[in-house]
Structures
1.
Amino acid sequence: MPDSVATTPAIDLEAEKEQILHRYRGLLRAVPGDRSTENTRLIRKAFNIALEAHKEQRRKSGEPYIYHPIAVARICAEEIGLGVTSVVAALLHDTVEDTDLTLEDVRDLFGDTVATIIDGLTKISGVNWQTDSMQAENFRKVLLTLAQDVRVILIKLADRLHNMRTLDSMSREKQLKIASETLFLYAPLAHRLGLYNIKSELEDLSLRAKEPEVYHDIEHRLKKGESVRKRFISRFILPIRQALEKEGFEFEIKGRPKSIFSIYQKMLTKHVTFDEVYDLFAIRIIVDSKPELEKADCWKVYSIVTDFYQPSPDRLRDWISMPKANGYESLHTTVMSPGGKWVEVQIRSRRMDEVAEMGLAAHYRYKGEEDHVHAMEGMLNKIRSMLKNPAGNALDFVHDFKLNLFTDVIMAFTPKGEMRTLPVGATALDFAFDIHSQIGRRCIGAKVNHKLVPMSQALRNGDQVEIITSRKQQPKEEWLNFVVTPSARHKIKQALREQKRKLATVGKEAVQHKLRAWGAKVNEENITILSDHLLATSPADLYWKVAREQHDLNAMAPPAVKNGRLILPKGKRAPDERPLEEIVAEIRGTKGSTLTIGDELQSMDYKLSPCCHPIPGDDVFGFITPEGIRIHRVNCPNAVQLMSNFAMRIVKARWKGKDSVEFLAGIQFSGIDAVGIVNRITTIISHENNVNMRSINFESRDGIFEGKVMAFVHNAEHLHSLVEKLRSVPEVRSVERIDR
Ligand code: MN
């Protein structure tokens, strides 16, 4: 392992030995459940073997290497609730890869289960994450390995958590790499497994590594507001506490700040400053209920809370009646405090709280480890079945995987009350296809909660959806723009292919019929002549266009025919007048699929080109380079050259509307210098439009100023409105978008 070095500086070895034993005993105490002599013996055996195997190694920090496996094992026991087998495997997790110990040795000493787990863990660390474009394939490899035994995932998460906790001694480059991987794969995995605490800690630590300034700034602000927050919380909960006591509840109330990462996410997605994030903390009420009274008690507490504070009607989340896919159960509401501040209140039972904090492991803490593993089998089976039939390429696979496992789901109902589970963002059309492909194909709209809506309408949790169909309806190309489920996409594409095939036959017959009517032979030569004349790129293209009535053969004057051969000039087009898109389309043929930009799942595969800074709304195309796809604006100064020289490497691209993403754009302006002008312009940019500036430069000479701003905007429209605002400043004489 690269984070170990084989040097032994002079240190107090006796003290170190004592420290190692101390940590080992701490681990033993943390192992849950049965502490029979047999179990203790196994753990001691693993500890001794790991100690011996790693004895020459030290971590980057200079500490003995064995600290790491002990810490990982302890996280497994204490924070995930795993049992002896996992603790043994965690102690040995780096031995096969880093030391002389072989997998066979492990198998002989500890049996098949431990050996299989170690083998899985060793394989994952062999995966090379070096390049962006490899990520999707690696992701698959990792999952393949992880899917063998859920303990591999859990121990890997513990390993990653400890590495993240001790990231400081790594090189900056390594820190960034590890933090990115953590955000990309491990935090979502932890989330999926319901390991809420581990997920938040991984995210926070990643943010600290990637953007230390942001992290420390938020941390500092949270600390600064702590006493005010505490006072607010105690005043807020006082009447609730009294009422709950009067009702005879056993309970605990916590006022916990949200994680730094989630606060930062909110600032980014809602485009607000730290001070504007209203829910910096959540109040959590945990009731000690009998199992059969859990639900009733939670609603009783809800009613007490809302006796004192007005709830926001659209912010009630009942995850007790319908738990989240990862097992999360809780009742959330947001209420108005007397000071006019919205406060999120989470209500749950003790059991629900433990599940929420530690994942399903909490259930099985005091049962056997095998039960625990069994409980996770459901999720694992899902992964396994996806791995067995990967849909096409690795990127699609990641997309589907994330959709199916990582995103939260919504539940919608048929008019008869049957529940359908769909990913967040699913539309009425997705719902229609989910019911039956024929219903999807014939969908013309829907009634959501008895109100007529277009089929592109995104559904919300609890919606009741009635699909309206028509026999005359046929799937349209544009449907692909708003369905989100892979199965609906697939079915639409299939239907479109069928339609095309049918149309092509119609077109072909029409062309043949016309040739005969003109007295020409029906042969390849004549069809090519006709294609060339009508600027069709191929016979198939000709048939298609005729069928779609883009070419009306009946409107053509009958051409001359000589010996059965058509006499028709080749069609001409002035090349300069054609839109670039058409040129590319012609060069690329009709096959190449469209790259959709702005879809976060594809974000690893493309980069926005720095030469023209494309933003959503711009006409763009993708250019394939060895480092991945680069997105350029169609009017990029380099576009013409790229298109003419490397046409085969061009792919169509279009934006998918997602305004939570920000893009860098440059604006240049000039005007007459005046007092306070710099201030006025920066105010316009940062406040009125709520955009983030990256850099701003002003130069003033002889009463004339010139400025250049690089700012993050959402899309072309957003940029345009910013340009208009700047133009409205009287002193400003010219404003234009620049490329760099
Ligand atoms: Mn490790």
2.
Amino acid sequence: MTKYSRQRECIREFLSERYDHPTAETVYINVKKDFPNISLGTVYRNLSLLTELGEIKKISTGIGPDRFDWNTSPHYHVLCTECGSVSDLKMENIDHINILAGNEFEGKIDGHITYFYGKCQKCLKKENG
Ligand code: ZN
Ligand code: MN
């Protein structure tokens, strides 16, 4: 294994142990422990490559930086507008909204990207004292 593929493997492994959908910055800070000379740019490039290869999923919410998910199977996320956390949401698949959208569209709908937002339990507790 080359140094580059070892770095990439380390990034993939780090992600696979996390359920909080880390940012590139968080990945960088942790991978640096094993590869002190790695740059943030290299981490970004590896995350992009892994995303292209379909080994991880990029979550671009428009709120805060992109996040990364080792779980590439279809599932939904909730964003906390208070602390920026991104959590998995176990809910029924809502693919039928593709049909609803298609009813209003002359072309062809292939899918949808949906994020839910609100306040996480932690922030809600803080708010309520
Ligand atoms: Zn929160
Ligand atoms: Mn997820």
